[in-house]
Amino acid sequence: MKKILCVITLMVLLITGCGKNGGNSNSNNQVSFTISGAEITPGEDFAEAYKTLGEPDKYTEAASCYFDGMDKVFTYSGFEVRTYPVGEKDYVQDLCISSDEYKTDKGITVGSTLEDVVNAYGKGYELNGKMYRYMADDNQYVYFFIMNNAVKFFGYAKDVQN
User: Fold this and answer.
1) Which candidate, 5, 26, 2, 158, places its Cα nearest to that of 95?
2) Residue 20 pLDDT > 60, yes or no?
């Protein structure tokens, strides 16, 4: 079920990534995350993090809708990294975390309530369906997918625009 929700999130990210953001910037939100010693930052090359993380449990790719090359999804235990191609490199578009093993820098994890999220990140979110998105700058953000008042997954992403 968590993987299905992450796939839904990817679709939402791709759809919302086509337009400009209308919300306020919130530069207090962290847009990188360290897992198993690998720092993963949306908009940055995934190569070093990949070396640190090693082979994923699952790997998929598909022709990119926006760029020449392949969009890729690297699935590890409890999280996925989605990348987009630029030249010979793969850049992080999204880190989707679906395990309560990981927490944001403000203590939010899978299972946290909407109240917990708002207390930690404030009311300056953009709401798209069940996704609460907090902008860190013009195109990077932290997001929380909330159903039945609980975070089902969260992540860090970059709007990919040509």
Assistant:
1) 158
2) no
Nearest-CA neighbor of 81 among 67, 102, 108? 102
Count the residues in the chain: 162
The sign of the torsion formed by the CA atoms of 84, 40, 161, 127 equals positive
**pTM of the predicted structure, to 2 decimals:** 0.81
Nearest to 42, CA basis, from 31, 34, 30, 53: 31
Per-residue pLDDT reduced to its tens digit, 123-145: 999 999 999 999 998 899 999 99
Output the DSSP codes for the chain.
-HHHHHHHHHHHHHHHTTS---S---TTS---EEETTEEE-TTSBSHHHHHHH-S-SEEEEEE-SSSSSEEEEEEETTEEEEEEEETTEEEEEEEEE--TT---TTS--TT-BHHHHHHHH-S--EEETTEEEEESSSSEEEEEEEETTEEEEEEEEE----
Cβ atoms of 82 and 71 closer than 8 Å: yes
Q: List CB contacts of 39: < 8 A, sequence separation 6 or more.
A: 32, 33, 48, 49
